[in-house]
């Protein structure tokens, strides 16, 4: 029910890595800039088809190489071995599931649900709504199987409507996309709203523990609550024509986060932002379906960074209580707070060896 093996080739500073991971807890130690985070990044790419550090694919390919490859084997409660692979070149990413090309990269996420808490996790709070929408959509995808289809139909309709707007097509051509956009958008929005309601319950509990504050979440759908999406699209058509892009819909939605009834952005410290983002990720893992054929993989990169001892202890206690496969990096060869690791590795100048 977890990622059992990973092979990494020409990925950043990692030339050739072959590891067997423990289903419960794997510890990876090494100095700064040794390649620990790159190893976690490779695991993330295997489950997401993209990096959590950069949008530029060429940054992931080792200097002098033409491509990177990340291969993994996943054991599930249904099948003893499922092979996953992601290859990246300057032309883009190609994925494989048991040798076949998946229809979408979402198939990777279904077989390897991976999340990360790293020193940059505060960006979930600090950056714009698009990052929080991706966070939401990953969670909804694993809770509601129909969601990915709704999301894909909405994105396709949005792409076509925006193309018509950009090319200054007549109103009738633009509005022809509104029926599908409204249908899939309303369904997508309802799924997100249901998920945020459930997430809010978990986040409140974890927020009290980690931050000693009352956290609350709410969802804004991207158009006026007084209107249906079809009505909002029709009402806003003139403005959309002026700017050449669709201005209302779930692609403009926002996850609103408040602490002690105050909006959080720019009002809390970096350390508090990190804990808040970690609380959201942990709450999301608590909502992961118990009957899933695979447990989530949680990557924890240098958890001691920027946290005092008390806050770190709270974070560790929350993480340790989750039903996840845990992969932790640290500067030190030991991290006793999570107990004894089932497997242990050290990283030095891009070389990974058993510790």
Write up this protein.
By secondary structure, the protein is an alpha/beta fold. It has a domain at 1-113 and 293-355: Rossmann fold (3-Layer(aba) Sandwich), CATH 3.40.50. The protein has helices at residues 36-48, 106-111, 123-126, 129-143, 147-166, 171-175, 178-211, 229-235, 237-243, 270-286, 309-320; strands at 2-11, 14-20, 25-29, 68-75, 82-89, 92-97, 114-117, 215-220, 254-259, 262-263, 297-301, 325-330, 343-348, 351-354. Strand 4 (68-75) and strand 5 (82-89) form a beta hairpin. The protein is globular and about 65 Å long. It starts with a strand and ends with a strand.
Using brief descriptors, characterize the structure shown:
11 helices; Rossmann fold; six-stranded mixed beta sheet; globular; single chain; 39% helix
Task: Tell me briefly what this model is.
The protein is an alpha/beta fold and 355 residues long. It has helices at residues 36-48, 106-111, 123-126, 129-143, 147-166, 171-175, 178-211, 229-235, 237-243, 270-286, 309-320; strands at 2-11, 14-20, 25-29, 68-75, 82-89, 92-97, 114-117, 215-220, 254-259, 262-263, 297-301, 325-330, 343-348, 351-354.
């Amino acid at each position: 029910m977890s990622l059992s093996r990973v092979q990494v080739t020409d990925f950043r500073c990692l030339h050739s890595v072959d590891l067997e991971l423990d289903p419960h807890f794997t510890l990876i130690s090494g100095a700064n800039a040794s390649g620990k985070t790159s190893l976690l990044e490779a695991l993330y790419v295997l489950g997401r088809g993209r990096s959590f550090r950069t949008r530029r694919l060429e940054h992931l390919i080792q200097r002098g190489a033409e491509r990177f490859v990340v291969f993994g084997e996943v054991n599930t409660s249904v099948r003893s071995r499922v092979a996953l692979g992601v290859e990246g070149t300057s032309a883009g990413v190609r994925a494989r599931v048991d040798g076949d090309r998946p229809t979408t990269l979402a198939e990777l996420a279904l077989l390897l649900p991976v999340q990360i808490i790293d020193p940059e996790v505060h960006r979930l709070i600090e950056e714009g709504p698009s990052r929080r929408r991706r966070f939401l959509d990953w969670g909804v995808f694993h809770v509601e199987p129909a969601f990915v289809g709704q999301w894909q139909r909405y994105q396709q309709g949005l792409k076509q409507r925006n193309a018509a707007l950009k090319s200054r097509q007549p109103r009738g051509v633009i509005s022809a996309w509104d029926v599908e956009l409204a249908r899939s958008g309303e369904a997508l929005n309802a799924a997100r709203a249901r998920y945020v309601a459930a997430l809010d319950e978990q986040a409140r509990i974890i927020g009290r523990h980690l931050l000693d504050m009352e956290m609350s979440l709410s969802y804004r759908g991207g158009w006026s609550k007084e209107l249906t999406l079809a009505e909002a699209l029709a009402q806003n058509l003139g403005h959309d024509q002026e700017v050449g892009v669709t201005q209302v819909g779930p692609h403009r939605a926002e996850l609103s986060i408040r602490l002690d009834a105050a909006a959080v952005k720019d009002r809390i410290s970096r350390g508090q932002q990190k804990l808040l983002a970690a609380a959201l990720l942990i709450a999301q893992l608590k909502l992961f379906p118990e009957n899933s054929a695979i447990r989530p993989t949680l990557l924890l990169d240098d958890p001691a960074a920027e946290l005092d001892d008390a806050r770190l202890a709270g974070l560790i206690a929350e993480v340790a209580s989750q039903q996840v496969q845990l992969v932790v990096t640290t500067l030190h060869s030991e991290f006793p707070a999570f107990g004894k690791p089932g497997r242990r590795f050290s990283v030095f100048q891009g070389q990974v060896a058993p510790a």
